[in-house]
Specification:
The complex is a heterodimer of chains A (196) and B (337). With 196 residues, chain A is an all-alpha fold. Chain A is built from seven helices and no strands. Chain B contains twelve helices and no strands. Classes of the chains: A mainly alpha (196), B mainly alpha (337).
Chain lengths: 196, 337
């Protein structure tokens, strides 16, 4: 229980840091810390496989890409003032509503909301087999659907970048001179053919 | 299972040994590179230059520690720590001998059922050191170095993950000790083609992960001064240096463990002295030293790749080849065996 209290405190501080820190890199780092603490919580709960996957996927891949984009666009220092004056109060109100909703749900239904025994049967212990049995058994359809969803996201991102690239090319051709390219994050650097 | 204090003691001893290993790896590298280039290499400090690493360490400690004014102080200090800690922690999962073989103790620190995932996870966290170090220094060269390294490491992690898939499928476990005990090559000769391709794909990916030649773009000195470590000096520089070399030791140890029999020696040595192939430590250390020699050999013989070549090779060739090896192994397991 003490361990959980410490971990929960660190996680909450990290999560607050993500929202409150001004520097985007610091906020992203705070998120990394939160995710790593979550992984430790999984280890404490005797679910090492989940912990390893959490670290590899979230902390090791996704957050590195976040930081990559932040650094590539050179976002640093103070965030600019919001363009819409109503955005800040609106964010406070929405956030407050979410917190109120979660708190209300907790008060209305104290105790675990999910079937913890079933979850423990899948994730506790060291085996990858139980997870695979569930993922490729009863949840096969949803597993594939999530895959299709991710693929849709990738295709959409590529489509957006391509569209913008052709538009800039056209604009350049119309202006007859090299214009200023908006900073973009290509999924891969352009492949330059070997000159030799 | 050893008592907790023994595990702590073993972890401490391992860290100290890796520190020494790092120091003498620099000596090994410089001597070998010297021979490759028809030079002698460092041979003045002590017999065969053996005291050179100690002299270097003393010099490094007494250097001035400069922190750039515009640097992000907290992250600037945090980054070398992340690099070195996760490099050391990775090694803890690698078994160095059969159970109870070291005077009744287990010659490993962690015997995890997800050992392989643990290794992949800690190496992927180690990237943050390089990445944040370059950013925090607030210098163009450093930032370019860290952007390059993160793009490179993310790209080659795909090859790394896919090429271990063959071993996992054959062994049916993620536990590094069980993988060694099984010896993936002994299962069936039909699996050898897939395994050989996977071995080379893994080797190349691991070379890129530790930014060894020909993938040392993050610190291409002709273009970027020293990449992400440009602004680092004194002990912080030494920590980054140490992380890099321990990373090389880790890569060698993991290649040896997954593909080359790990802590087991060749069985014919049992004819000379019974049980010799089961001796702890020596076989793993021998394999690590040989593989490090190959890494240094590569440094002496290959040229650095251009950035677009690096990306194209990673995504167009290595990824597909590693995937092909995994598919081949899977097909053999499903249809032939």
């Amino acid at each position: 229980m003490l361990v959980f209290a410490v971990l929960a405190t660190v996680m909450l501080v990290g999560a607050l840091g993500v929202v409150l820190l001004r520097d985007p890199v610091h906020a992203a780092l705070s998120l990394v810390g939160t995710l790593l603490t979550l992984a430790i919580a999984y280890v404490v709960l005797n679910a090492p496989f989940l912990a390893a996957i959490q670290v590899i996927v979230y902390a090791g891949a996704i957050m590195v890409l976040f930081l990559f984009v932040i650094m590539l666009l050179n976002l640093g220092g103070e965030a600019p003032a919001p363009t819409q004056p109503w955005i800040r109060p609106a964010a406070w109100i929405t956030g407050g509503l979410v917190i109120a909703g979660v708190a209300a749900a907790l008060v209305a239904n104290p105790g675990p909301a999910l079937d913890t025994a079933a979850i423990a049967a899948v994730f506790q212990g060291s085996g990858v087999e139980q997870v695979a049995d569930q993922l490729f058994g009863p949840f096969l359809l949803s597993f594939h659907l999530v895959g299709v969803l991710l693929l849709t996201g990738i295709v959409a991102a590529v489509g957006l970048v391509q569209q913008r690239a052709t538009e800039t090319d056209k604009a350049r051709a119309a202006a007859g001179q090299a214009g200023h390219m908006p900073p973009e994050v290509p999924p891969m650097p352009p492949v330059v053919e070997d000159a030799s | 299972m050893d008592p907790l204090w023994v595990i702590f003691l073993k972890a401490f001893v391992m860290s100290v040994l890796l520190l020494g290993g790092f120091a003498y790896l620099t000596w090994y590298q410089r001597r070998l590179l010297g021979r490759f280039q028809h030079r002698l290499g460092p041979n003045r400090t002590g017999p065969f230059g053996l005291l050179q690493p100690i002299a270097d360490a003393i010099k490094m400690i007494f250097k001035q520690d400069v922190t750039p004014t515009r640097a992000d102080k907290f992250v600037f200090i945090l980054a070398p720590g992340i690099s070195v800690v996760f490099a050391l922690v990775t090694f803890g999962a690698i078994p160095a001998g059969p159970a109870n073989s070291f005077f009744g103790l287990d010659p490993w620190i962690l015997d995890l059922d997800i050992g392989l995932l643990y290794v992949l996870a800690t190496t992927s966290i180690g990237v943050y050191g390089i990445f944040l170090g370059g950013w925090a220094a607030n210098s163009k060269y450093s930032l370019l170095g860290s952007l390059r390294s993160s793009a490179q490491i993310i790209s080659y992690e795909l090859g790394l993950g896919l090429s271990v898939l063959s071993v996992i499928m054959i062994a049916g476990t993620l536990n590094l000790r069980e993988i060694v005990e099984l010896n993936v090559w002994s299962v069936s000769p039909w699996l050898w083609p897939g395994l050989i391709v996977a071995l080379f794909a893994f080797w190349i990916s691991a070379t890129a992960e530790v930014s060894n030649v020909p993938f040392d773009l993050p610190e291409a000195e002709q273009e970027l001064v020293a990449g992400y470590i440009t602004e680092y000096s004194s002990l912080k520089f030494a920590l980054f240096f140490m992380a890099e070399y321990v990373g090389m030791i880790n890569a060698s140890a993991i290649i040896a463990t997954l593909f080359l029999g790990g802590y087991k020696g060749p069985a014919f040595f049992d004819l000379l002295i019974p049980g010799m192939s089961e001796w702890p430590f020596i076989w793993l250390i021998l394999k690590i030293v040989l593989l490090l020699g190959v890494f240094i050999w590569l440094q002496a013989s290959l040229m650095r790749m251009r950035y677009d070549q690096l990306m194209r090779f990673g995504w167009v060739w290595l990824f597909e080849i590693a995937l092909g090896a995994a598919l081949l192994t899977g097909a053999v397991i499903a249809f032939v065996l």
